[in-house]
Amino acid sequence: MGFARPRFDIADIVRMHRENLEKHSCLSRLQKRVLTAISRCRTAVLGGHLEVCTGCGREHPVYNSCRNRHCPKCQALAQQKWIDARAERILPVRHFHGVFTPPLGLRPLAMRHPTEVYTALFHSVSELLLELGRTHLGATLGLTMVLHTWTRELHFHPHIHVLVTAGGLSLDRQRFSHTRKDFLFPVKVMGRLLRGKMLDALRKLYRKGVFPELKQAAFNRLMASLAAHKSWGVYAKAPFRRSQHVLSYLGRYTHRVGIANSRILDVGSDHVTFRTKGQQTATLHPVEFLRRFVQHVLPDGFHKIRHAGLYASALPGGLLEKARALLPLPKPCKKAQPVAADAPRTCTHCGGIILRLPLTAMARSPPQEAACV
Questions:
Q1: What is the pLDDT of residues 221-249, one digit of tens each?
Q2: DSSP state, 353?
Q3: Using CA atoms, how far apart are residues 222 and 116, in angstroms rounded to an integer?
Q4: Residues 255-293: tens digit of each pLDDT
Q5: For the chain, what are the domain ranges?
Q6: Residue 303's beta-bridge partner residues?
Q7: Among candidate residues 86, 31, 54, the one with its CA nearest the CA of residue 291
Q8: Which of 245, 250, 243 is nearest to 79 (CA)?
């Protein structure tokens, strides 16, 4: 049984309201490029093919995807490929899920200098966890980190989700040291370390001239404000017991965009209503909806998924392989039989063979709405 397609599509909102958005907001070239990709995704302007059933004669045009990482329609396949690749590397141990969130006062700087601030946040989170692993366990942990920049209401809210192995390879590389059953490290200690490491990283960036718009006095005030802030949020969930559960859970985070089409409940000329948390909803003007959406466009080439510790080890015979050799073999899990790449597709209506034919010139004409760049 297939899943029903969402009733509403962000691409339609982009096509209808992008011009008005650009009148009220100064968009970067990258943000414009993302909106163009989303508006063209799975339309004739990107080309495609025609599927024709040899049994009942049904015809169905299939258009190419934009494959932009910010497009809500293009993430399912990329997510599954990522999960399949990581399944070969994940250790058969419990994993904790942590969330690390800097305070509100850092957000304006992150908006102006996303690459530098996000990179500093990644380094600070990985350093503090690896440091605690060495001092508390005498071991090297495995970390997989994912950057998110949004709330359920699409506000700008950068934070990092981390999956942490519940133990690690001992520093002498002779054993695998496990954490306590349901406890990683004290959250207050992690919060203080996150604050200290981020402040140190920001000072180094300032000395390199990364924040030229800030005079020394203004930068000092920002640092004092961040240092005094107690809400360097750290949250840790109870560990997952099976590695397959870990991957399925993390897969929901790795390729998520600010909002999925399935969360959009209603769209009109002057409103967009979408689901936030549970049964709660929010309603915004379409231009405000798009303004919030483009806040979460990441810099070109920026990696929002990163690995550290054992999971950063990719070389044969490296730390990851040494840790795996010290662990019991995982129980084999049943895998679905892969479908042969050259296996013919069959029609869901009559069971006939489906042929792929090139689209005619008329069918490939781009829709009027998708023609804007």
A1: 999 999 998 778 898 887 766 666 677 77
A2: B
A3: 16
A4: 788 999 999 999 999 999 999 998 899 999 999 999 999
A5: 10-69+346-371, 93-258+302-325
A6: none
A7: 31
A8: 250
